[in-house]
Recover the amino acids of this structure.
């Protein structure tokens, strides 16, 4: 039988889930959910939630239709001028922070956006080895000695030999009494994936544009991590040159130089070649820029790198163009003209934070 508290908790989670779905676009655009509490949960601010329930009792003449008054009189209002009165001294609306796991968040995102589960590429299944203790044996390292089994064996031996004294229960194991844990190495299939984020940090990319990238990256991360058991994230920033950086640096760096997008694509291709063999990894690359590039020749170099190296190695390559008052916005047009209906290359225009949800859907709806 399910206890009342378990029913209330389940009902509470259902209400929380419904509130998140109803306000998902607002949460996404404002970044409310990125207040990370730990590796597996996030904290979500929402109005206080009360579990509705019936309360039995005596109305004592205070219910509707009882007491003094004539038909047509307003219910529950005091006489006096409407809206008049002193400032309130009571408590206002309360908000609570509800912790939600990233898996729950990913499930809500998938349901709201209608995202299909990802089908990993056929050969990207690695075998990791996991040790499992399966029994005891008479030899082994001292670090694996099973003390309880050893002393039980010694006690049994001393009782059978008549040397055990209950008044002085001293048990002294000998070499033959020692027992050690034995283990078995079992292969464990594990699908691995890597997400490579690239971002233009030149002078035309301001704080607002980088905040959009931060929010969208969080949601892409959340969804892809729900689809794979093992996943890594790598970060590349670029202006006229590119370099790999840590996550915090990725979201806080701002440069003032020009833009050569090919530098980021070369760095990404080098990273894949060095560390992520496409036959063993599911590779996702996402590049965010305002669409401004140094020259037509550099754009041609980008298209060549995409066609010859990055797209063949990736499950999907995503390009998100963030609108900036200083960027030309030309690059997405060049990609569209060069690749047409290429399914492995997905482009998205993100003019404001309100477009993030639609951009996420564009990037993830293919289920690749």
């Amino acid at each position: 039988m399910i206890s009342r508290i378990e029913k209330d908790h389940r009902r509470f989670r259902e209400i929380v889930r419904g509130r998140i779905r109803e306000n998902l676009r607002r949460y996404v655009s404002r970044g409310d959910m990125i207040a990370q509490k730990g590796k597996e949960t996030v904290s979500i601010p929402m109005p206080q939630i009360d579990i509705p329930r019936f309360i039995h009792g005596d109305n004592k003449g205070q219910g509707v239709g009882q007491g003094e008054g004539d038909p047509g009189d307003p219910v529950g209002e005091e006489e006096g001028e409407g809206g008049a009165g002193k400032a309130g001294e009571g408590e206002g609306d309360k908000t609570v922070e509800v912790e939600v796991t990233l898996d729950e968040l990913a499930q809500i995102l998938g349901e709201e956006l209608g995202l299909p589960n990802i089908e990993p590429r056929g050969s990207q299944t690695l075998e990791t080895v996991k040790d499992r203790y399966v029994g005891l044996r008479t030899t082994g390292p001292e670090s694996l000695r099973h003390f309880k089994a050893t002393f039980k064996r010694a006690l049994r031996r001393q009782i059978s030999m008549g040397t055990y004294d209950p008044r002085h229960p001293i048990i002294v194991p000998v070499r033959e009494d020692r027992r050690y844990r034995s283990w078995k190495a079992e292969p464990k299939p594990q699908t691995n994936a890597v997400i490579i984020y690239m971002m233009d940090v030149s002078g035309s990319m301001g704080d607002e544009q980088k905040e959009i990238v931060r929010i969208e990256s969080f949601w892409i991360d959340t969804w892809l991590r729900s689809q794979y058991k093992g996943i890594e994230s790598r970060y590349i920033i670029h202006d006229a040159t590119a370099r790999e950086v840590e996550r915090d640096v990725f979201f806080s760096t701002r440069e003032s130089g020009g833009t050569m997008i090919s530098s980021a694509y070369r760095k990404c291709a080098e990273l894949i070649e060095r560390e992520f063999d496409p036959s063993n990894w599911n590779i996702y690359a996402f590049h965010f820029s305002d669409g401004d590039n140094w020259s037509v020749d550099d754009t041609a170099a980008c298209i060549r790198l995409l066609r010859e190296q990055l797209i063949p190695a990736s499950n999907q390559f995503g390009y998100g163009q963030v609108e900036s008052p200083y960027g030309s916005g030309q690059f997405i047009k060049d990609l569209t003209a060069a690749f047409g209906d290429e399914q492995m290359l997905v482009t998205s225009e993100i003019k404001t934070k309100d477009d993030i949800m639609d951009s996420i859907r564009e990037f993830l709806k293919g289920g690749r």
